[in-house]
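In the design runs reported in the main text, the only information available to the sequence generator was the tokenized backbone. The following block is the verbatim input for one such run; it is reproduced so that readers can re-run the procedure and compare outputs position by position.
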């Protein structure tokens, strides 16, 4: 029955020039989201609104599911288009619509007509009253409630007449692409995909970097990260995933530095390399899945040590979240099942029994001097040999 969707969006600050940027980014993201759906769609702006028109057959549930992944959408209204063939005909169509969408008639309603085409023979108030009467005649169980109706029946008079009443909630947030770009440190765990989702929700496009340590981490572990990037891309749009071979750097640190500082020093090199790629690709910040106190490398002291090697701001959207709260979001966005597949991650291979929880930055820096001889060359090689995968 439905042939289109009216897209509702709401965010403060969507005025003037910003409004165009916001709407254009939203249209772009909607097109991307619908690309994989059955059927074809025309996405267009019309008088400050965005419509998605199905061109022929399409899978309604699949289209709605895809639209529910597009940040910036606050509501998705399924719309019925009808030709203007006189008011009598419209009354019949509207009564038929009510019968089909609300089989349980015991509801209150209000008709809310809008005349976008001013040459329509009736004014909005008149349409409201006359259509209301037609509905009451056909469905005597229904009642009018103009203040708090169960059903707000919207009738828009344009070239065609649009009928809609349902609002399916969207994910909210800002359209991806309106907020610049950030580099996500994406591991195979539960946290970092959630962190990426949260930053993307604010309109930020996401690139990602994964530190791979073959043969200590398998091809499966890498595939899992690619899968996670693809799941995040359902919300964030295509994710450019940079895969860095980290093995030699990791081995070298293992050889030259105290083992209880290995994780921290390794993380400092991850941040340095991530920042290098971020700057090359015009990212405005780094994003990690860290949360205070979750593990030894995420105490406030450890965060000082990993933070100080970067100039770009490091965004940590999960900083105040408990693991349980992160898991809830991971399940909601569909990354959890992939994240818990048991593959080694490069941090878990060499972890010390008793990693430092209060690293002293001066001592860490001193121990990093042990790496002087080869580290620059190893980092350069890691950057030269990085692999780029587009996850979408
Ligand atoms: P996650 O569940 O995201 O893996 P975690 O609890 O395992 O997080 P850590 O291993 O301490 O936490 O990593 C903290 C953050 O560092 C991660 O959230 C991620 O942003 C980044 N990170 C860790 N390992 C890697 C890796 N191999 N490649 C890219 N980023 C990583
Ligand atoms: Mg991890």
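Verbatim output:
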């Amino acid at each position: 029955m439905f042939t289109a969707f009216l897209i509702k969006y709401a965010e403060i600050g969507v005025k003037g020039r910003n409004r165009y940027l916001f709407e254009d980014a939203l249209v772009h993201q909607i097109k991307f989201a619908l690309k994989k759906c059955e059927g074809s769609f025309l996405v267009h702006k019309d008088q400050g609104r965005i419509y998605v028109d199905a061109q022929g057959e399409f899978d309604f549930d699949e289209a709605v599911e895809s639209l529910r992944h597009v940040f910036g959408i606050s509501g998705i209204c399924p719309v019925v288009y009808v030709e203007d063939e006189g008011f009598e005909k419209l009354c019949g169509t509207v009564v038929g619509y009510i019968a089909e969408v609300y089989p349980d008639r015991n509801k209150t309603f209000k008709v809310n007509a809008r005349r976008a085409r001013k040459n329509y023979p009736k004014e909005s108030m008149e349409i409201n009253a006359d259509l209301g009467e037609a509905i009451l005649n056909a469905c005597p169980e229904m009642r009018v409630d103009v203040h708090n109706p169960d059903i707000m029946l919207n009738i828009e008079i344009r070239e065609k007449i649009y009928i809609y009443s349902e609002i399916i909630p969207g994910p909210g947030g800002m359209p991806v692409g309106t907020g610049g770009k950030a580099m996500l440190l994406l591991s195979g765990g539960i946290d970092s995909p959630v962190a990426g989702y949260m930053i993307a929700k604010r309109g930020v496009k996401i690139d990602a970097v994964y530190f791979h340590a073959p043969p200590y981490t398998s091809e499966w572990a890498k595939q899992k990260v690619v899968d996670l990037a693809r799941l995040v891309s359902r919300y964030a749009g295509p994710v450019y995933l940079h895969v860095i071979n980290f093995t030699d750097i990791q081995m070298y640190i293992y050889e030259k530095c105290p083992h209880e500082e290995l994780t921290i020093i390794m993380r400092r090199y991850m941040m340095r390399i991530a920042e290098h790629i971020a700057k090359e690709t015009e990212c405005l910040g780094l994003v990690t899945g860290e949360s205070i106190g979750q593990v030894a490398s995420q105490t406030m002291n450890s965060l000082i040590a990993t933070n100080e090697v970067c100039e770009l701001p490091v965004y940590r959207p999960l900083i105040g979240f408990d693991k349980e709260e992160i898991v809830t979001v991971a399940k909601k966005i569909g990354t959890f099942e992939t994240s818990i597949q048991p593959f080694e991650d490069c941090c878990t291979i060499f972890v010390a029994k008793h990693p430092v929880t209060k690293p002293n930055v001066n001592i860490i820096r001193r121990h990093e001097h042990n790496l002087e001889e080869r580290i620059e060359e190893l980092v350069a090689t890691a950057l030269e040999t990085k692999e780029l995968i587009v996850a979408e």
